[in-house]
Amino acid sequence: MKKYVNLKAPHDKIIRAFSGGQQARLLLASALIQNPDLLILDEPTNNLDKGGIAHLTEFLVGYQKTCIVISHDADFLNAFTDGVLYLDVFTQKVDQYLGDYYVVVAEIVARIEKEKMKNAQYEKEIIANKEKANFFANKGGKMRLVARRMREKAEEMEEAKVDVRKEDKAIRAFTIPAQNDLGGQLLKITSLTVIKNHHPYPMEANVVLKKNQHLLLSGPNGIGKSTLLESLAAGKAEGSEIAEGVRVGYYRQDFSTMNFDDTVYESLANIMNRTDEQQLRSVASGFLIDSKMINSKIGTLSEGQKGLVAFARLVLQQPGLLILDEPTNHINFRHLPIIAEALSKFEGAMILVSHVNEFVEQVRIDEILDLDR
């Protein structure tokens, strides 16, 4: 089983002590050890580093049984898929396509355009028939019968119009306002601890972040990135110092910074210094949080919806130091360029951990701290 999931660890190690990427490997191992006829993977690349994704891709390419995968990673999907199930949230239909992911996407786009053209032709004929019906209706007598037939034909065409497939909406472009009156050194890291072969080792560092400086924290799964971010956010990281008065905005990959028993409205209101109803609802709307969702408890939301709420909270919090741990996990790929642009424009200090290279390339990074050096 070790070779399938690429994980070596002491057998007595507690599960919660593993990193997110290591836990992802353990989940795969627990599924494979059952020797299933059907393997179902829900966002299996979340938290995995580049090596982990490559290993998982190689495994799936050679997997001889049936596998169903949900993922927002297009390149990953395209490497091994033989077909795609397309779920349309608007029409409530499921269509099956044969071919790899990119072939299917192109086919769906072409089909949507064809349906739009067909509907446009129907609409043109509907308008013409209605205009004729009105003309003949005003003539009176037998012409009223002709007018009725024209209206019936227009109604038939209305029914014949195709339910055009609509893609998910993307969030609005947004800005994360930085805390006012920031100046000087906001964060200093002189030393930290890395984990190698499940043993801690001290490591010297020379990181100073000021306003409008962005740091990428890199390294493989299990080396201690999330542990460092958690301790920084809590103000307990040895060898690190956050300037007094700096507000820390922490996007945690498991969303545990939010109370799952709170409603979305309560979660957003609690992060604000002073609740501004209009501002809260405007920000929420930009992240596709509608009137129904805003009154739902955080714990009832999908992981992707929790991610959008977490970003809305950061906008309302206006932090001086932004700490982001795998912010692309569970997020619809249509939102990612918008999020990347917002992070690039953030004018406070920022620390980012992400294994999604395509996303990182879109974010302005001023300095890299590689824990594996």
Tell me the major beta sheet: 5 strands, parallel
Q: Can you tell me the residue ranges where pLDDT is under 50 for at least 5 consecutive residues?
A: none
Please state the structural category.
Answer: alpha/beta
The average pLDDT is: 87
State the helix count. Answer: 12
Q: Could you tell me the strand content as a percent range?
A: 15-25%
Strand arrangement within the widest β-sheet reads 9-10-11-7-12
What separation lies between the terminal Cα atoms?
29 Å
The geometry reads as: globular
Would you count the extended β strands for me?
Answer: 12
Report the helical percentage.
Answer: 25-40%
Whole-angstrom Rg:
26 Å
- Secondary-structure element order, N to C: HHEHEHEEHHEEEHEEHHHEHEHE
Please, could you describe this protein's structure?
There is one protein chain. The two termini are 29 Å apart. The longest helix is centred in the first third of the chain and has 37 residues, at 101-137. The model has no long low-confidence stretch (mean pLDDT 87). It is globular and about 95 Å long. It is an alpha/beta fold and 373 residues long. It has helices at residues 2-5, 20-32, 50-62, 74-78, 101-137, 143-160, 225-233, 264-271, 277-286, 303-317, 336-344, 357-360; strands at 38-42, 66-70, 83-88, 93-98, 185-196, 199-210, 214-218, 240-242, 248-251, 321-325, 349-353, 367-370. α5 runs antiparallel to α6. The strands form four sheets. A five-stranded parallel beta sheet has the order 9-10-11-7-12.
